[in-house]
Write a structure and sequence with these properties.
The structure holds 2 protein chains of 2 kinds. Chain A is an alpha/beta fold. Chain A contains 13 helices and 16 strands. Classes of the chains: A alpha/beta, B alpha/beta.
Chain lengths: 366, 244
């Protein structure tokens, strides 16, 4: 029996949500994630769950807030400008320590931008995004398979830490068709939620609130949140390495650029350059300690992003002066080609660039 | 001695912090009495607003959620869709419901969402110090229309009940004014009806309560009641707009 289905990343994550026993999806259409609400409008009712197309992203995230208050597994999905609209609600959800999952299929920005892939929402995703001192758990899939598998993980982590999780992907991952193994058994944990506002029968009333007028109380809550994030930093860091053991230069990339960089590692190795790849899977918590160890080992870094340079700041913080960190980025919907990145690598090894007839610059001019 | 009047079980022991003469206290009490009478305290989830009633979560004995400004109908939607057998109400002021949260209330009503909304209209932003609201009357002075609301500059007040009554979604919309014992009894009856509608699965209900703000109106409570009856009721007539 076939165990694999050919699915877009956007569709794979919907099936992952069902596997995670997601109770409700609240969303609003925006390209390039429209397949998500479309697919969920079929999958959720078919599984006895709730689907609502809200009137706006603002409303959708507040429906998520309400459903999470009720103690249920709720999610929303959007793309860059839509996720900006959700930030108010996300800040409230983080403050109230409610679990939920938010998917951002990033496009190029700022502003209305382009519907083509981007990674320029990194700061927004890992540094808070809305107002106040808070963090999301951020997972970055690089394949349709991971879109599927990261949904149960995102819900479990959200429940475990009572914190919103974000799946941060890009339009390529969302739109690319790939075989997905759908027969994975997920160990879904049922977390008790005695804090849920689901009717105060047999107990005192529950209050879900983020208003703390007294500065001592407010600071205490912030310290509690920070302790939780520190705990995540110890227990939830996830990353993958490729050919890093003997590497002199380690590329750091996530999502689609990480896949391109893996090809570049092979191309560079064929030419005798000792290059590797570190792919953070959790963007928060960030694999800072692992990067710092590599830096102390004398490895240099080249950070590749589809942005003008965002994750590179976290790599620099992790390296903390112990080694060199350089950056190559494309933005606004432009995707780097393997040859372009290879030339960046060659330059770091003192080699002249190779010329390729394939150029994304040429393509994007069409 | 026989006790003839006591604190309703729907309220906690926390003392209200509302200004003297403010009708929020009265309306809270009515909701608490209704929850007790209908025996639904333990199956009710309230969603409270940003504004004067922001501390409502401390006063009500039911489970309660603090929503962000204007979003209570969406939060209530999320709760109700997850827990269809619980009673879910939102409690919102005019700034919350008729200004920043206009989209949320219109669409919750349009969906016929099976929730009950209690809309407190006192024609001003009370908590932030008496600024102009979407419901501020023409000529009414506030801190952001100090010469009185001029429709050419500030636009016209919005009649929420009338606006929502044009939609097919709502099952019950009524405007009341608890400025007299009869008005209070009508207000209680209206909120009870809204709750019963939800229990019966009839869909969206909204009760607009014409309320006062003696502090920012710079009136005595008695004068504020008179102002509701004479001025506010003229532009915002009490009555049933939808009941189906």
């Amino acid at each position: 029996m076939a165990t694999k289905k050919l699915l877009k990343g956007n569709i794979a994550l919907c099936h992952g949500a069902v596997a995670a026993r997601c109770d409700a999806f609240f969303g609003y259409p925006i390209t390039p994630q429209n397949e998500v609400p479309e697919c969920m409008s079929e999958l959720m009712p078919a599984n006895g769950s709730v689907f609502i197309q809200a009137e706006s992203e603002v409303s959708a995230i507040n429906m998520v807030y309400g459903a999470a208050c009720a103690g249920k597994r709720a999610m929303t999905s959007s793309s860059s400008p839509g996720v900006s609209l959700k930030q108010e609600g996300i800040s409230y959800i983080a403050a109230c320590e409610l679990p939920c999952v938010i998917v951002n299929v990033q496009r190029g920005g700022p502003g209305l931008g382009t519907i083509l892939p981007g990674q320029a929402d990194y700061f927004q995703a890992v540094k808070g995004g809305g107002h106040g001192d808070y963090k999301l758990l951020v997972l970055a899939p690089w394949s349709a398979q991971e879109c599927y598998e990261f949904m149960p993980l995102a819900f479990d982590l959200a429940d475990k830490y009572r914190n919103p999780s974000m799946i941060l992907m890009d339009a390529i991952i969302g739109q690319m068709l790939e075989p997905v193994d759908m027969h994975k058994n997920f160990d879904i944990v049922e977390y008790p939620k005695p804090w849920a506002t689901n009717g105060a029968r047999g107990r005192a009333h529950n209050i879900i609130n983020s208003l703390w007028i007294d500065p001592k109380t407010m600071e205490g809550l912030n310290q509690k949140l920070q302790a939780k994030y520190a705990d995540m930093q110890v227990h939830e860091v996830r990353f993958k390495e490729y050919q890093t053991e003997d590497a002199e230069l380690v590329m750091v990339a996530y999502g689609s650029p990480a896949r391109i960089c893996r090809s570049v590692v092979d191309m560079a190795r064929e030419e005798g350059m000792k290059v590797g790849l570190l792919r953070p899977i959790t963007l928060f918590p960030f694999p800072a300690m692992q990067i710092n160890d590599m830096a102390k080992d004398g490895k240099r870094f080249l950070v590749v992003e589809m942005s003008c340079g965002q994750m590179v700041e976290d790599v620099k913080l992790a390296v903390n002066g112990a080694s060199d960190v350089e950056f190559y980025g494309r933005s606004g919907g432009a995707v780097p080609t393997p040859t372009e990145i290879l030339n960046e690598v060659r330059a770091r090894f003192g080699k002249p660039p190779v010329v390729s007839h394939y150029s994304s610059r040429k393509e994007s001019a069409v | 001695m026989q006790k003839v009047f006591e604190r309703p079980k729907g309220l906690t022991d926390t003392e209200f912090t509302y200004c003297a003469g403010c009708l929020h206290s009265t309306i809270h009490r009515l909701i608490a009495e209704i929850m007790e009478e209908m025996d639904i305290i333990h199956q009710t989830v309230g969603v409270c607003p940003v504004g004067c009633a922001v501390f409502m979560y401390e006063y009500m004995a039911c489970d309660i959620i603090e929503a962000s400004h204007g979003r209570a109908p969406s939060v209530a939607t999320g709760v109700k869709r997850m827990l269809p057998d619980r009673l879910v109400f939102s409690y919102q002021g005019d700034g919350d419901l008729a200004s920043i949260g206009t989209a949320e209330i219109v669409h919750a009503a349009g969906r016929g969402e099976n929730i009950s909304v209690i809309f407190i209209n006192n024609t001003t932003y009370g908590m932030t110090g008496g600024q102009m609201a979407p419901t501020t009357l023409i000529g009414q002075k506030t801190t952001t229309c100090p010469s009185g609301r001029d429709p050419h500059v500030n636009g016209y007040p919005i009649r929420v009940c009338e606006m929502l009554a044009t939609l097919d979604g709502p099952s019950y919309i009524e405007r009341v004014a608890p400025t007299s014992p009869a008005g209070m009894s009508k207000t209680k009856k209206a909120i009870k009806h809204a709750f019963q509608n939800q229990i019966d699965g009839k869909g969206f209900s909204l009760v607009e309560v014409l309320s006062n703000c003696p502090t920012n109106w710079r009136m005595t409570p008695i004068d504020s009641f008179k102002w509701i009856d004479e001025k506010m009721s003229e532009f915002f007539p009490v009555g049933v707009f939808v009941d189906r």
